[in-house]
Design a protein that fits this description.
It is a single chain. This protein has about 500 residues and is mainly β. The chain has helices at about 20-25, 40-45, 195-200, 265-280, 285-300, 345-350, 365-370; strands at about 1-5, 55-70, 75-80, 85-95, 100-105, 110-120, 135-155, 155-175, 185, 190-195, 210-235, 240-245, 250-260, 310-320, 320-330, 335-345, 350-360, 375-380, 385-395, 400-410, 430-440, 445-460, 475-490. The protein has a single domain, classed as Outer membrane protein transport protein (OMPP1/FadL/TodX) (Porin), CATH 2.40.160. The strands form two sheets. It has a 21-stranded mixed sheet that branches. A two-stranded antiparallel ribbon has the order 9-10. Helix 4 (about 265-280) packs across helix 5 (about 285-300).
Length: about 500
């Protein structure tokens, strides 16, 4: 009665995959009211009551995303080509002589991630050329727990799942914040903070920054949460069926992570501006450097200790509650048509990501931030609720061959104010083709191809994430290949 889901892959609907095996993927993932696959454990567990036989499915999928990004200093950047293998296996124990059905499985559930090498205005070599930085993200999720279904009546069933959710999360990229986070006091007599100094214009004795940037590397984050699911399945007759499913929200509290925050480039840039300011008043370069070092020392900054800090890290992220409805119609014994509608409450789930850092070991950064090495940040996301519409069909060409096709549209949940290249869950249009071949009466091979059409999203002129994303463009498209084998025991 155990269901397990694993992901280290890209998003196709927020962070949710369209289909979980070759059979359902070939018809655009429709499954809420087509009761014929163990993957119902991932969509509508009540539907497993109507499979009517014990089935073992083994599936292998390969996802190949294509990501792109452009801004004023990265005119046409391409992300690394990553290949994500996604094995899965599911078993349903069901027969027509019992009203009780149970199942267990291992499934890819969804996620996201990307890798880029990008230019950033702050990171340059001594000759002024750009020193490209690594931009990396990965969201990985595992789900496991019991899934059972019971026929309340011959044509009506209810199913439930109670799943533990295990997740891993990591980021590596330049991380920018408002100077206001630097609450350390520079001048006690005036109350001026480092944030005031870094943001004030040079004419007022400041550096003129509207953001401060550190190289952030966040690793080893793991979380355990809970997700409940309840589903209903109703067969009006042999031709028409309906399905309804609700999935609860899940809170993931990532713990035991490690973070490195490297502000070397930002501090060096500030130091250079201060030296240039002193030289403009007639000092030699050596005298200006010595004077600025003295000024920083007077503010409690020992430049010999550098600006790299290690932290213990905790994050909090939420997965959305979802409601799904499906209807299927079989006008003939050979043809099946189905429609799925699904709503995902991303607005409440991905409003922000809370990041808590503690035990920071660099005195310079602690002094500038005005803390003892512990503080909390909220990373803005502001996602919107999304709706997915899936239309699928399958046609039994003969006793051995079945053909499938489908189309799915999922509204993009990512707003233009918070889009950035390593979290681009923006695709909307999916086209799928698939088919099955019966090798024997109880052994079937299924295959499917899924094309996720390219989606470009233009960022706002004032990004909430960082200045480098102002007026930028992020893009995503995907190719997915699915192959599975299904064995029936009765």
């Amino acid at each position: 009665m155990t269901q397990l889901a694993l992901t280290t892959v890209f998003a196709t609907g927020g962070t949710k995959l369209l289909g979980y095996d070759a059979k359902t993927a070939g018809r655009a993932g429709v499954s809420f009211a087509l009761f014929d696959s163990p993957t119902l454990m991932m969509t509508n567990p009540a539907g497993i009551s109507f499979i009517g036989k014990s089935v073992l499915d083994a599936n292998f999928s390969l996802m190949i995303p294509k990501v792109g990004f452009s801004n004023s200093i990265n005119p046409d950047a391409k992300g690394e080509t990553n290949y994500f293998p996604m094995p899965s296996v599911g078993y349903i124990n069901s027969n027509n002589n019992s009203d009780f059905t149970w199942g267990l499985g291992l499934y890819t559930q969804g996620g996201m991630g990307a890798d880029f090498s990008l230019n950033h205005a702050l990171y340059r070599n001594q000759d002024g050329s750009y020193n490209p930085q690594e931009y990396h993200s990965k969201l990985a999720v595992m789900q496991f727990g019991p899934s059972v279904a019971y026929k309340i009546a011959p044509n009506f069933s209810v199913g439930i799942s109670a799943n533990l959710v295990y997740s891993m999360l990591e980021f590596k990229m330049p991380y920018s914040l408002s100077p206001s986070v630097m609450k350390g006091v520079v001048n006690p007599s005036t109350g001026m903070t480092f944030g005031d100094m870094f943001s004030a214009p040079p004419s007022a004795g400041g550096f003129g920054y509207d953001e401060v940037t550190a190289l952030a590397n966040m690793t080893n984050l793991t979380a355990i949460g809970f997700e409940g699911k309840i589903g209903f399945a109703y067969k009006l007759n042999d031709q028409i069926a309906f399905g309804l499913s609700y999935t609860s929200a899940s809170t993931l509290k990532y713990k035991k992570g490690k973070a490195t925050m490297d502000m070397t480039a930002q501090l060096n840039d500030a130091f250079g501006k201060a030296v240039q300011g002193a030289m403009s008043q007639g000092m030699s370069q050596a005298d200006a450097q010595a004077a600025v070092m003295g000024q920083f020392a007077g503010m409690g900054i020992d430049l010999s200790k550098g600006a790299v800090a290690n932290y213990d890290l905790e994050n909090e992220l939420k997965l959305p509650q979802m409601i799904g409805f499906g209807a299927s119609y079989k006008p003939t014994a050979k043809l099946a048509l189905a429609l799925d509608l699904q709503w995902a409450n991303w607005k409440k789930a991905f409003d922000k990501m809370s990041i808590s850092l503690s035990n920071g070991d660099n005195a310079n950064i602690n002094t500038m931030l005005g803390n003892n090495g512990s503080f909390t940040l909220d990373f803005p996301m502001d996602w919107k609720d999304a709706v997915m519409v899936r239309i699928g069909a399958e046609y039994m060409l003969n006793e051995d061959i079945t053909l499938r096709g489908g189309y799915a549209y999922g509204s993009n949940p990512v707003p233009s104010s918070t889009i950035f290249p390593v979290f681009p869950a923006i695709v909307e249009n999916h086209i799928t083709l698939g088919g099955s071949y019966n090798l024997m009466s109880n052994l079937t091979v299924n295959a499917a191809y899924e094309l996720v059409l390219n989606k470009d999203l233009n960022a706002d002129s004032a990004s909430k994430i960082a200045n480098e994303y102002n007026n930028s463009v992020s893009s995503l498209s995907e190719n997915l290949f699915h192959l599975s084998v299904s064995y029936s025991f009765n």
